[in-house]
Amino acid sequence: MSEPQPQEGQRPIPASADEALEIGRGHFPSTWPGGEEPTLHVHEFDLGYLVYPVFPPREDPTAYPRDPGGSHIVISKADGAVSALPNYPPEQAIELYRSHFRREA
């Protein structure tokens, strides 16, 4: 039996970290400025899935760190809504989501 597909105008609601990763890929570039393919990680928590990039190690560890810029995203388990968050460590990003984006949750 296949999973029901979202109707036009509806957002897909991920049922797993793998599904969240597939949705999340559409919110990040397919390659970094240096040509590398981004590595994305998913952190599941009670309200959703945090999807964030992990940057490759620098070739010269003594060089000034490059500015990763960008953001993380959270995909809501309740309705599939996608929220952009600053590039914070995962636990900080999740706390920000809980306190700012999903007060009603």
Summarize the model shown.
The chain has 105 residues and is α+β, with helices and mostly antiparallel strands.
- Class computed from helices, strands and strand pairing: alpha+beta
Helix percentage: 10-25%
Portion in strands: 15-25%
CA gyration radius, whole angstroms: 15 Å
The neighbouring-strand order within the major sheet is 1-2-3-4
Helix and strand sequence: HEEEEH
Describe the oligomeric state of these chains in a short phrase: single chain
Largest sheet: number of strands, sense, barrel closure = 4 strands, antiparallel
Overall mean pLDDT: 82
Per DSSP, the total helix count is: 2
Protein name: Immunity protein 35 domain-containing protein
List keywords for this structure.
disordered N terminus; Immunity protein 35 domain-containing protein; 105 residues
Textual characterization of the structure:
With 105 residues, this protein is of the alpha+beta class. β1 and β2 form a beta hairpin. It is built from 2 helices and 4 strands. It has a 4-stranded antiparallel β-sheet, with helices on both faces. It has a domain of 73 residues. The protein is globular.
